User: Fold this.
Amino acid sequence: MHNHVEYLLRLADTPLILGQRLSELCGHGPVLEEDIALTNIALDLIGQARLLLTHAGHLEGKGRDEDQLAFLRTEGQFRNATLVELPNGDFGQVMLRNFLSSVYQEHLYSALQSSIDPELVAIAAKSLKETRYHRRHAGDWVVRLGDGTAESHGRMQAALGMLWPYTRELFAGDAVDAAVAAEGIGIAPGSLEAGWRREVAAVLEEATLCIPEDTPFLSQGRRGRHSEHLGHLLAEMQFLQRAHPGATW
Amino acid sequence: MSGVSLSAERAWDVLAGVMDPEVPVLSVCDLGIVREVEVADDELLVVVTPTYSGCPATEVIEASIREALLAAGAARVRVETRLAPAWTTDWIGPEAQEKLRLHGIAPPGPCAPPGQAVVRFHPSCPRCRSRRTERLSEFGATACKALHRCLDCLEPFEAMKAI
Assistant:
């Protein structure tokens, strides 16, 4: 049971934190359509996180709801992949991260269709439909900017160099992942790597971008060890509930 | 009313008049959000399947359903959310599609089956019906729509995305 809850938090926190990062861009998109797109995607991600957190809270049985889990956990209790907590950077970097992340989510939600947890299957099936649109949107931009001007190409290549090392964490399983995979609840992250790489490589090639060499660096966000950026993000996300506990409107 | 509940049939009629706050020409039944209505003792159970995970209208819709049924004489109303099978635009029937078109929103194309890539669908212009259209943006004013433009009459229009 503990592993099951822990796994659900890992699934929930990645879309939650990416949704929070994208909502920072509300009113800052380069053009109106993209501003709307980014906030729409943020809403979908936060909606997915709400369903997963609610499920985790029920299963945990300590009476914690989605709000308590999102707003009253501390930094070390978050289980998102480090990739999504990194600051946004420029628009190209935002699109590249959305692309790398949405291809991963798409493979993950597809694989979760075989889970023995029916609630998780339902949430994943619903989220999968939305994720396909996120991936298509981000993939189009990666190609357009990568295979664009010298300036946009250079920025995309630099963004790829910055983000790529953090993707390794997405496929690094631990004892929790192994336990839920053995029980048929979850997916061993390593099993998603080949499919993800194939799809990402095809789009990056079309975008004329070179995949950086792999490095031994392995970030640990899914195990609760985060970069210095998550605390600042949470300070903003959690401010209201911390300052006015239980506030509703 | 003395606790007399509505019949399921009457409840469906009432629900056909509860409109979506974002697309006010379609009722919650047209959209396929209402999956089941059951009467048990004096309680009316309405099973709904939400559209997008992040759709801000979801909570408003549930409140409107409850309000409309109570106003029509239901003693007690319970709205239950069902996630599976996930909501799909394939549940929007031909009549509702025509209502969308008349409202200026191109209806959704058919959904790609699971495992297949999303089809790049070019909706025809809801005003002049031309098939020569282009997509301006993947996301429109609400999660469920994308922005397109007609290359013949040059009007921009929204199209509901197939999901």
User: Anything to note?
Assistant: Chain B has a mean pLDDT of 88. The longest helix of chain B spans residues 57-71. Helices of chain B lie at 8-15, 57-71, 94-102.
